[in-house]
Amino acid sequence: MEGDGSVYRRKPELGAFADRALRQVQHLVGAVGELLVPPQCPGCGRSGECVEHGKSGDLCPQCKAQLQQVPRRFSPRASLRAPAWTCGPYAGAHRGIILSAKERGSRRAREIMGAVVGAALGNLAAVGEIMPPLITPIVLIPAPTRRGSARRRGGDPVTLACEFAAATMRGVEVLSLVQTQASTTDSAELGASQRRANLSGRILPNVTAGSEKHAQLLKLCESATVVLVDDVATTGATASETELVLASLGVRLDLVLVVSRA
Ligand SMILES: [Zn+2]
C-alpha cells in the first residue's frame, strides 16, 4: 500500500510539471504565431501597427472611434409602431464587426457587438428614451434567424451578442421568442417587397400560446422594456413582421435596436 501511495504522491508532481511545460510550449507557440501572423483588428481586418496593444482581437483606434457614437433614431420603410434606433451605419467598423461575427464566427466580434448594444441601451436610458434597467428590467429579444443557418455559423451572432450585453448589465435578460421557418430564403439578395413576402407568415413564436411558459413570459414582459435586437436593418421588414408576431403573443414591443442601418 505504501509503495502504491508513493507512486500516487509523485504523480501529481509529474502532472504539475507537465502542465507547466505544456503552458510554456503553448505560450511560445502563441508568441511565434503572433510574429508569423500579425494580429488583425476585428473591425477592419488590418494588422500590424494599427492595432493598439498588439494583441489578437483588439480593435484599432480608428474602429474604436467609429464604434463610439450615440445611437440614432431612424424611420424604416416597413411600418413599425415601436421606435427604431441604430448604433451606426452599415459601413466601416460596424459592418466589419457584423461580418466577422456572422461569416467568420469570431467570438471577439460577437462580444464587441454585445458591448455596442449594451452601450446603446445605457445611452438610451441616460437620455430618457427608456427606463434604466435597474428600475425597469430590459428584455432583449434577438431577431429571428433560421435555426439551421445559426447552427452552421456556430450559434446565432445576434443572440450571442445579446447574451454578452445581458451578462455585463444588471437588469437585462435575453428571451429568444421568435424564429424563422427553415424554408425562408436569405434576404440579402431580395428587394423590399420581396423581403416582406419572404418573411410574411414565416416568423414563428418559439412558445405555444396558452402554455405555462407563455403565461410566465407575458408576466415578465408586462413589467419590462421589451427590445428587439438585430444586426442590420435594411427595410425594417423583419422588425415589422416580428412586432406583429409578438403582438399575437400579447407582447408589446417597446423599442427596436439594430447594430447598423443599411
Ligand atoms: Zn480596425
Bound compounds, each kind once, are: zinc ion
Number of domains: 1
Number of strands: 8
- Based on secondary structure, the structural category is alpha/beta
User: Mean pLDDT across all residues, rounded?
Assistant: 84
Order of helices and strands: HHEEHHEHHEEHEHEHE
Question: Describe the biggest sheet?
Answer: 6 strands, mixed
Shape annotation: globular
Q: N- to C-terminal separation?
A: 72 Å
Q: Supply the number of helical segments.
A: 9
Query: Per DSSP, what share of the residues sits in E-state strands of 2 or more residues?
Result: 5-15%
Question: Uncertain spans, ≥5 residues at pLDDT below 50?
Answer: 1-12
* DSSP helix fraction: 40-55%
CA-based gyration radius = 23 Å
Strand order of the largest sheet: 1-2-8-7-3-4
Structural commentary:
- The protein is an alpha/beta fold.
- It has one domain.
- The chain is 47% helix and 14% strand.
- The protein has nine helices and eight strands.
- Strands 1-2-8-7-3-4 form a six-stranded mixed beta sheet, with helices on both faces. A two-stranded antiparallel sheet has the order 5-6.
- Helix 9 links the parallel strand 7 and strand 8 (255-261).
- Helix 3 (92-102) packs across helix 4 and helix 4 crosses helix 6 (157-168).
- The longest helix has 35 residues, at 2-36.
- 39% of the residues are buried.
- The model is unreliable at 1-12 (pLDDT under 50).
- Zinc ion binds at residues 41, 43-44, 46, 59-60, 62-63.
- This is Phosphoribosyltransferase.
